[in-house]
Amino acid sequence: MSSAAEQIVAACRGQSLTVATAESLTAGLVASALADVPGASAVLLGGVVAYSSQVKASVLGVSADLLERAGSVDAQVARQMAAGARRRLHADIAVSTTGVAGPEPHDGKPVGTVFIGLADGAGSISRGFRFTGDRAEIRAQACAQALAMLGGHVARTRR
User: Fold this and answer.
1) Antiparallel, parallel or unpaired: β 123-130 and 113-120
2) Which GO terms describe its molecular function (predicted)?
C-alpha cells in the first residue's frame, strides 16, 4: 500500500490537489496510509472516521432517509460520504469507505460487502466490491482498493 500512497501524494503535490477521507469500516486506514508518506501534509487535509450512521448524517451530511432506507452499507451512502468529506474539509478530492468487515452481516449485507466512494468538483461515484477473508483482511483489501481508486482518479486528473 505504501507504493500506492507514495504515488498519490506525489501526483497530488505535482498538481496542487488536496485530499480528504471519510472512512467507516477502514476507520482511518486510508488516511493513515497517506499520512505515512513524507510530504503528505501538502496533500492530505484530514479525514473523518464515521463509524456510526449518526456521524455519517450529522458530520458528513449523508441523507438520514437514505440511511434508514438502505442502511449504511450502500453505494449511494459511499458517494454521499465522499462528497460530504470533500465539502466539509474543503478538499479537491475525497475518498470514502463503507462496508461489512465482519464477523456478522450488517444491514442485511453479507460480510465482505464494501462500497468505495470518490468525489471531486465534477460529482461523485462509487464502486461495490465483495472481499473475502477475516476482518483484518477485508479492511486491508478495502484500504488498498480505496487507494487504487484514488490513485487512478488522480492520474486521470489534469489541472
Assistant:
1) antiparallel
2) hydrolase activity
Query: Quick one: residue 53, left, alpha or beta (phi over 0 = left, psi -120 to 50 = alpha)?
Result: alpha
Q: Can you point out the beta strands (E) in 1-154?
A: 19-23, 44-49, 93-99, 113-120, 123-130
What is the Rg, in whole angstroms, of the alpha carbon atoms belonging to the chain?
A: 14
Domain residues for the domain of 26 are: 2-156
Q: Which three cell numbers stand for residue 141?
A: 483489501
Taking the alpha carbons at both ends of the chain, their separation in whole angstroms is: 25
Q: What is the CATH number of the domain that holds 109?
A: 3.90.950.20
Residues of the chain below pLDDT 50: none
Count of domains for the chain: 1
CA 27/CA 34 separation, integer angstroms: 14
Q: What is the rounded CA–CA span in Å between residue 23 and residue 47?
A: 7
Measuring CA to CA, which residue among 153, 90, 143, 88 is closest to residue 118? Answer: 153
